Amino acid sequence: MPLKTDHEDAVLVGSAEAADRQADRYGWRVLSVTALGVMLCFVNASTLNVVLPVVSHDLGSSSAQASWILLSYMLVTTALIPVCGRLADLFGRRRLYMGGLALLTGASVGCGLAPDTAWLLLFRCLQAVGAAAVITNTTALLTDAFSSRTLAFGLGLNSTLSATAQSFGPMLGGAVVSTLGWRAIFLLNLPLGLYALHRAHRTLKDVLPRQNEPFDVRGALLSMMALSGLVYGLSMAGPKGWSSPHCWLALALSVLCFSVFVAAQRRTRHPLIDLGLFADRERATAYACVLLICMAQTSSVLLVALVLQGVQGANAFHAGLSVAPVPVGMMLASPVAGRLMGRFSSLHLSATGLLFVMVGLCWLVWQLHAEVHTAMLGVGLLAIGLGTGLFLTANNSGIMGGVQAQRRGVANAIRSTLQNAGLVLGAALAMSIAIAGLAPDVQRAVYDGRLDQTTPEDVLQFLTGCRWAFAVLAALCLAGIGLCLSTHLACRRRGPSAATASIATPRHLTPPKRSKP
Length: 517
Fold this sequence. Notes:
By secondary structure, the protein is mainly alpha-helical. The chain has helices spanning 6-46, 48-59, 63-91, 93-113, 117-145, 151-179, 183-187, 189-203, 217-240, 245-267, 281-310, 316-322, 325-340, 346-367, 374-400, 408-435, 440-448, 456-494, 498-501. It has one domain (23-204, 217-503): Growth Hormone, Chain: A, CATH 1.20.1250. The chain contains 19 helices and no strands.
């Protein structure tokens, strides 16, 4: 058999590089398309953080209904992200992405025309189903499009876009509701969604689905029940009290379903979530910390907006501008974090980001009172934004480091699931702590933005609850810092090669053994 010459090797290398360049050109076109869908999904997730009092007052919602107007979208999206990821593998990513985008757009019109709270909740859930399909398939489409050498950068940029859109949502929502009304927030999705669908139809290529792999129905049901039970238990702790049996039964059901889910995922050949990615301690730490920081970031924006509108009588536009330091801080910190990545480990930068967020939350605990100036709150929010921007860049590197090319999409999908879980769990936990002990009519006044019409004692009790919520979230950030530092020390003792060596490859990705000739 003749040996290959140096010229033939050079030709093969050149053709491979040309193929990578062609793939990357298509990858950037795909990213320009999926960015539109990602922005629609995450802006819709966070706009109500500021305009919820306006919506609740206009529709006459109870306190429980108002909380679920906020939580339903995030809960359904988070629960369905892993499910939609597997469905995309089975039925085609382009088809499911465009179907999700169409459902998100149509349900947005339904939200804008909803006559009462029940209809709004229904269309918010339908919005969330579409958003889950878009978010999950964004990762899958980018993984298919980019070459292995630029895939991590493309996924990191997608993560930054989603976090930025989620942070700018409250400011955009406040501006729209003050000029056009709260229904325009949803109705404006129609032209944007139609344009995104047009771009997707013209740009995205279809990838043949893997129809020989079964869908893990049991895993999907268990994961949805575990998350739903956890969110329901946390959200009911505020209105009914932490001693309520409804609260503890829901939390116990969540723990049981989660335990059974993990055990089932370890045994199945085609799992809903690849638990092998948690085998590396550094990656598992990165996953845990992204959950913690998203809980803190979204809750701080929500509580500050409610205080400004309910206690100080600010309108939605002013409240939206007041929380702008969070996205501004993220935009300032993200490029700085990218430059620091070559000098410091991802765990060091993640711990530093969590420290900034913790300091910002402690500042809010110290400064929050009925007459607090917006600028003083902005200092704490800016620290939270700087910490979040620094953290997310480093965290993405920690998650993607050492992952095989064919598993990067799965690794990033798990990060998206935990990021969304942090949003919904943080909102549920913070609101439960903030309104705990308040009378039902006072709780409704909180959601309606009319707390200034209650007694000074009620206002003081709500502000005290907010300070406790900030303190609990700061404690979670402190736990994340300790986790990062302990993991860094453990990885140093094991050596630099331990991380990649500990990543377990799932059975369906393990190549068959070749027989000796």
